[in-house]
Amino acid sequence: MERKRSDQKTRAPSGAAVQSVELTEALYRALFAEWAEHGFSALSLERVAARAGAGKAAIYRRWPGKLQFADEAINTIALRMAAFEDKGSLEADVRAFHRRLRSVFRHPLVRRILPDIYAEVARSEAMEAISERVAQTRRDEAAKVIERAIARGELPGALDREIALDFLPCSIYWRMMVTRRSLPDAQLDLYAQGTTAAIKALASAP
């Protein structure tokens, strides 16, 4: 006798139908490790899957290709690295922003992958779009530093926000990623003081 549909239990998906959060995170880590070792152009999804302890199908169940995989991985990590809470003053917020940026630039994978991204940007419009989205994520977070200072009355509402946002990361990026020098705490404080002074000077410029 045929069972009525209402008598049949709904079965939970299993096996390939379930996308494990832990496996997704492992795939992200494997992607970045392979990227740092081989560069994006030579990156192999087979090696990424093997490093994560999975089959290549685990990647294609999540992303249609290498670019989409990289896009989601980069933006997921960028969002985690971007946020920090209100520290109460412009200089304190700038110092917290610089400290977070220093932590990112100290990471050995970031130090190898970031220059490769810029090299790929010169060759690939798709990678350029990925890079721009990551940059905008960080810029949106930096904008909170400026907007909080305006709300506190530390900066005028007429401030040129775009130039102020350029000031925030540039000195840290130059020192750590371009000249490849370390940045100890004492000097980090000086960079925060200098950047704060520059933004305030911009606010008073004619």
TrEMBL record:
Transmembrane segments: none
Organism name: Pleomorphomonas diazotrophica
Coiled coil: none
InterPro entries the UniProt entry points to: Homeodomain-like_sf, HTH-type_TetR-like_transc_reg, HTH_TetR, Tet_transcr_reg_TetR-rel_C_sf, TetR_C
Pfam families in the record: TetR_C_11 (PF16859), TetR_N (PF00440)
Organism taxonomic ancestry: Bacteria, Pseudomonadati, Pseudomonadota, Alphaproteobacteria, Hyphomicrobiales
DNA-binding region: 44-63
Gene Ontology MF annotations: DNA-binding transcription factor activity; transcription cis-regulatory region binding
PROSITE patterns linked: HTH_TETR_2 (PS50977)
Protein name per its UniProtKB record: TetR family transcriptional regulator
